[in-house]
């Protein structure tokens, strides 16, 4: 009986050792998969963020030159040390940019099974669409029915005559009053405006306030005249595009916002001027996009993939 008991104990100890060995192997395998899985997840997350940044930054220049878009993408990839990961970039000017990245990620535990690395592929695509909402607009407006030719001279009237013709209008952003108008012209209306908003027009003689606002923007511009490539140029103003909403006593009382446009102020106003001289330009901005917005050259950026 004693001999049989000792034999049974030895057999159970041997089984326990086998089970412990198998459990340890399983535990190491799971731990290894967690480590390698975490490495892959972190690498793909980083690569996706870089692709998103490259696509969004490149899209900011889709209204300019393709070489500039390519340079911006390259700069973003270099900044994040992923220049060698670029697999492909597709650029369609005034529409979208797509960036594809590919990278081999080295593994640790999986090397024991002959798997030294794994491929990680990500893509990002950004599109520009007509701007539907934005802050910082100037208290000026242009009728949506007016066809715009970009980079060509325009004169925008700022006196009360001719406002009801639909060519140009002065807007009472944030309320009426010449001082409110002047502040908004100098620094931009700080609240957000979006398509569908109904806004009162401004009445009264504000030609002098307009001259002061235009002069301030010109004086504070550090760039050469005619250079509107810089996004912080104070000569570039955002203008709401509208359709007439309410007429009263032969005058346009209210407008309804249908889009946005960008206008570059090219020269100061003289003491007798009643118009702002400049040109409409195409540009992207920080803001929202929405279907049905009128396209007048002001675009927002949307990450679509």
TrEMBL record:
InterPro entries in the cross-refs: Tad_N
Q: In this record, what's one Pfam family? A: Tad
Ranges for domain Putative Flp pilus-assembly TadG-like N-terminal come to 14-60
Descriptive protein name: Pilus assembly protein TadG-related protein
